[in-house]
Design goal:
Length: 238
């Protein structure tokens, strides 16, 4: 069998796994989605109000906080994984909770990675709106928190785009989750870690099947971002 035949054979096998809804494949995808969606929701709960507050209110050190948020957007995943590992390990402050090598540990690692992204992007969106509407708010005597609520609502499409950007970052993560999750079969094995493992083992069918699913998710996220931007543009001109 030639190399090309091997490739097409593996690709055909991968499509067969996807079409047949292979149980192992579905288990890995399901765990990946649960971990990622939970991490993104928690990141948004923390990051959206934090970014909005930094983008709206003037306080001492505001510029420094904005710089830190922007810098944390580029956190190396393996460093995050190492830090979370140290916190959750038996000798760490959260060691008694026995969270290491569980889906919860993976959620924490992804949340730490995504929260700065959500907060920094939210800060920029809200800061731009605040600059645009500041005189109007001042003339109407709108309070600080009413101002913040109004801008969050007005920026809802952009903030949904921010959440999707966070989801795209989290679902493709491998470095941090493999450190704190351990890539344990039927426990903490997600799409990215499985692709890395199965490729190293030569099991290209499962790796390609998961790769196809990840590509489909990436296309869906990008399509969602474009649809939200188009909807926001139509709303602006309505």
């Amino acid at each position: 069998m030639t190399g090309m035949d091997s490739f097409w054979g593996a690709f055909a096998g991968a499509l067969g796994l996807v079409i047949a809804l292979d149980p192992d494949l579905m288990e890995i995808i399901g765990l990946s989605m649960r971990v990622t969606l939970t991490a993104v929701v928690l990141a948004c709960v923390i990051g959206l109000p934090l970014g909005a507050a930094v983008g709206t209110f003037n306080f001492p050190g505001r510029t420094l906080v904005a710089v830190i948020l922007n810098a944390l957007m580029g956190l190396p995943p393996v460093v995050v994984g190492l830090l979370v590992y140290l916190v959750l390990s038996a000798s760490g402050p959260l060691g008694p909770l026995r969270l290491l090598y569980t889906p919860t540990a993976m959620i924490i690692a992804q949340m730490v990675l995504v929260t700065p992204i959500v907060a920094a992007l939210t800060r920029q969106v809200i800061e731009d709106l605040n600059r645009e509407y500041s005189e109007q708010f001042a003339s109407l005597g709108v309070g600080r928190f009413d101002r913040l609520t109004a801008m969050l609502w007005d920026a809802r499409y952009s903030l949904l785009t921010v959440a999707l950007a966070g989801f795209g970052r989290a679902v493709a993560e491998v470095g941090a989750v493999i450190i704190v999750g351990g890539n344990i079969n039927h426990v903490t094995r997600v799409m990215t870690t499985t692709i890395a493992l199965e490729t190293s083992k030569g099991n290209l069918q499962l790796a390609l099947a998961l790769g196809v699913i990840l590509l489909m998710i990436a296309f869906a996220v990008n399509a969602g971002v474009m649809a939200l931007r188009a909807s926001a543009a139509r709303a602006a001109y309505a």
